[in-house]
Amino acid sequence: MLLLNEKHMQQAASMADIMEAVKTAYEIYDKEQFQMDARTHLSHNENTLLLMPCYANQSFGTKIVSVFPHNRSSPVTQGMMILTDGNNGTTKALLNGTYLTGLRTGALGGLAARYLAPDDARSIGLIGTGVQGFYQLAAICLEYPIQDIYLFNRTPEKAIAFSEKIKSHISPHVNIHIKHQPHEIISRADVIVTATTAHTPVLPNDPDLYNGKLVIGVGSFQSNMRELPEELFKKADHLFIDTLDAIQESGDVIDPLKSRWLTESQVIPFSSVVTGKVTPPLSTEKPIIFKSTGMALFDVIAASVIYEKAVEQGIGLKVEL
């Protein structure tokens, strides 16, 4: 078995590699060439343990993730990924699931920007300066020549620390601005990312703020969580989702459908965009929304790519169980 920690994974595969892996996963999803149960949620108070199994491309993948939203000295999201050979049941690798989750979720946002953002996008606004937000910016900056990044966090000190960390992972020509109110970000950004564990919307409920912008929501993964406001859904023509499971899992999909801010026909799996079956109507008069909850298929394909590249390069620690 190969042990791959964060450093090993960074050496083996780049964000660009993972974006292509996620693109492959979308193609597999569209063709239904996988087996995947809905992820298991086990919650105690506000803390959650997730179990995410999947079979695809001759590998089983099982990710175990904990989400502790009040963590301060430890990451909010942590986990491990077990990669199993689909032919003989041998455990091929144990990967750092915390890093894998951030990496592949960032890749989801990067791909959303590739297909849905306006061609002249030059600025990003980020609400929530945690691990997920970091990888979102890293991926989107690969897709567009971003000139300005606007940050908001409820704790300003975290935004300051975040800005210093992200500088070493993006172009030195990008200007980073820390703002004190979300609306200051919305008015300036072409692409808006929400990466929080909020239970109530973190964006202003003003439909005119979002015209022509792409809004990427990656934080809400449970039915009682919501990051996006009512008027945004009412103004949008479509809501693109990374997996149909989001219809049962995320408050950012459940609430708009239940309240009839959107109809079911307006909710479109993003795999249809990746495979060319749907061409998103980009407009300066309407916002575009992409909602990600993640799924185990992304993890198993991304983990397989990292594992294969690590083997090729002789990276990782081999152990016997």
Automatic annotation (TrEMBL):
Pfam families xref list: OCD_Mu_crystall
Source domain of life: Bacteria
One CC-aspect GO term: cytoplasm
Family matches, as PANTHER family: KETIMINE REDUCTASE MU-CRYSTALLIN
Protein name: Ornithine cyclodeaminase
Source organism: Pseudobacillus wudalianchiensis
